[in-house]
Amino acid sequence: MWNWDYAIKIFPEIFAALKITVTATFVGFALAMLLGLVLAISRRSSVKTVAYGSKGLIEFIRNTPLLVQLYFIFYVLPEVGIYLSPLSAGIIGLGIHYSTYLSEVYRSGIEAVPQGQWEAAKALNFSPWQVWSKIIIPQGLPPVIPVLGNYLITMFKETPLLSAITLVEILQTAKIIGSHSFRYLEAFTIVGILFLILSYPSSVMVRRLEMRMNKSLR
Amino acid sequence: MSTPLKLVKNLSDEENNYQDISKKKQKQPMVCYDKISKSYGDLQVLKKIDFDIAPGEKVALIGPSGSGKTTLARLLMTLEEPTSGTIKVDGELLWHQKIKGKKVKANEKHLQKIRGKIGMVFQHFNLFPHMTILDNVAAAPIHVAGIPRAEAEEQAISILEKVGLSDKFNAYPSQLSGGQKQRVAIARALVMRPQIMLFDEPTSALDPELVGEVLGVIKDIAQEGEMAMLLITHEMDFAKDVADRVAFFDEGRIVEEGKPEELFYNPRSTRLQDLLSRFRGR
Ligand SMILES: Nc1ncnc2c1ncn2[C@@H]1O[C@H](COP(=O)(O)OP(=O)(O)OP(=O)(O)O)[C@@H](O)[C@H]1O
Ligand SMILES: [Mg+2]
């Protein structure tokens, strides 16, 4: 059943499509980190409408499927004149969706910073922005880096969803190759193995990082 | 029966006020609490407190646990907002500002301006654990005062030397003893040259053998003179040595205040007598 010659022949094309998948992952994740931080900070705003507004937004996005959000961005936005390429739409969709998860991760990091740190910073007359950037984030972020890493891996594995908005990423490439030759086994197997090769070492690294940080905290 | 008595008392109060006002012309109080109340839900922690601190004056605040001493300091440091009343710092309202003649809630900019005159040392030090000792002290000069790093570090070094920590610049807070941590915290507040420093039980989280070194540093600072100090403490001997005035706090009120000798050797209220005998008993 398995044909090595065929597998070797199609491999370069599938491997090349990995570039799109990796781009969508990293750019999407960078966007999610940024938006997530904004959401986490505005959730703690003393302005009640900002705090409740961002909490509502987080709940709304978290509780609707990513696929629906992707469809909205790619198929509905053009109706109001906003046209996005499949890649941009995918990055924005992933970024927004994952920002809500990451905002919760940041939140747990922020809440672990003792109240006394806020007070000392305020007593030294740091501006609210400086309290965040010099005192709270530098202390609240490092402990949650492993959790962020896990989300990065999860997001990477979810990128095939972007084929639903016509992005020709790795899975879509494999599907196209398969439909030309009516051989799917090799193409999909290669996709699975590429995901495995990238995800597994990453999650081992994250676990190591986690263990090392737990040790240094003790 | 009590009414006439009260009247007489009020009259004499007013006379005092007259003298006060003429004195105030020359010497405006550094801090002026005016009918300050603070409640947490149903619990009234401060009950219409009137309380002044003169420029350069060292005031010790003593009183039983839960009487509201910390709260009084936290209101001044803007860590907590009063429920009613006003606080003036150096003649300016702290929690309010006048815009077009109307008294409104102070904005962040106003708070920052006044906060710059105040420094605070906390019971649990609250050093920044992710920064070296030097950075802990230099951070505010750099980020708040906008002083160039090299100059800020120079200032930090000279103040760390003053509190006896010249060999710890590159250590992290977790590597220090409690007494050393608190001395860094003092240096960190001092480097911003506040006009008033608040010390909230600076030694009560310390092992007994480390208390002396911290009190020594505070005493040295007090002797330099120009900075007003509010010292919340259970160290009665220290209060006696350092304070120009002692205020005894109980259940959200100042029950008694006066010179240390008067208060410690001649306590009028039974509550203060109780408190003092408990400390002597130790
Ligand atoms: N954030 C808060 N919420 C509710 N109650 C509070 C809060 N902060 C303080 N209190 C209460 O206010 C009262 C006065 O507290 P405060 O810390 O000012 O007392 P204190 O005189 O400093 O006591 P201690 O000697 O124990 O430090 C206490 O009963 C305390 O439980
Ligand atoms: Mg207290």
Task: Describe the protein.
The complex is a heterodimer of chains A (about 220) and B (about 280). With about 220 residues, chain A is an all-alpha fold. Chain A has one domain: MetI-like (MetI-like fold, Orthogonal Bundle). Chain A contains 9 helices and no strands. In chain A, helix 1 runs antiparallel to helix 8, helix 2 (about 50-60) crosses helix 4 and helix 3 (about 65-75) crosses helix 4. Chain B has about 280 residues and is of the alpha/beta class. Chain B has 2 domains: about 10-115 and about 195-280, P-loop containing nucleotide triphosphate hydrolases (Rossmann fold); about 130-190, no CATH class. Chain B contains 10 helices and 12 strands. Chain B has helices at about 1-25, 70-75, 110-115, 135-145, 150-160, 180-190, 210-225, 235-240, 260-265, 270-280, and strands spanning about 30-40, 45-55, 60, 85-90, 90-95, 95-100, 100-105, 120, 195-200, 230, 245-250, 255-260. Residues about 1-25 of chain B have low confidence and may be disordered. Adenosine-5'-triphosphate (ATP) binds near residues 43, 45 and 65 of chain B.
- Oligomer state of the chains in this structure: heterodimer
Tally of individual helices of chain B: 10
CATH class label of chain A = Mainly Alpha
| Helix-strand category of chain B | alpha/beta
Q: pLDDT average of chain A, as an integer?
A: 94
Q: How would you spell out the order of helices and strands of chain B?
A: HEEEHEEEEHEHHHEHEHEEHH
- Give the number of helices of chain A: 9
Question: Quick check: average pLDDT of chain B?
Answer: 87
**How much of the residues of chain A is beta strand, in percent?**
under 5%
What does the main sheet of chain A amount to? Answer: none
Largest interface, with Cβ-Cβ < 8 Å? A-B, 18 and 25 residues
Radius of gyration of chain A: 21 Å
How many domain units of chain A?
A: 1
How many β strands of chain B by DSSP?
12
Q: Any guess at the CATH architecture of the largest domain in chain B?
A: 3-Layer(aba) Sandwich
The portion of residues assigned to helices of chain B is 40-55%
